[in-house]
Amino acid sequence: MNRDLPNAAWFKSSHSSPDQDCVEVAFLDENTVGVRDSKNPTGPALAFSPGEWDAFTAGVAGGKLDRSHA
Questions:
Q1: Does some domain include residue 36?
Q2: Which residues 6+ apart lie within 8 Å of 21 measured at CB?
Q3: What is the mean pLDDT of residues 29-53?
């Protein structure tokens, strides 16, 4: 699905310094969470349901996505 997101309020983690490349997140309408690459703000974005986003962030917080587990 492609859609224009000109009014999305994108933000980075508070743990990221302003000059670091990172992922950006936006809480979009229609119960969707957008994720994009901060180095390419006009490029594509991924869209997740709130449940998918919660599962992802819980996995990150729980260390389940650390490279040492791969």
A1: yes
A2: 37, 38, 39
A3: 88
Residues 6+ apart with CB under 8 A from 59: 65
The answer, yes or no, to whether residue 6 has pLDDT greater than 70, is: no
Domain range enclosing 56: 8-61
What pLDDT was estimated at residue 34? 92
- Token pair, residue 42, equals 């006009």
57-63, long-range: CB < 8 A, 24+ apart: none
Residue 56 lies in a domain: yes
Q: What CA–CA distance (Å, rounded) separates 7 from 19? A: 23
Residue with tokens 């962030």: 57
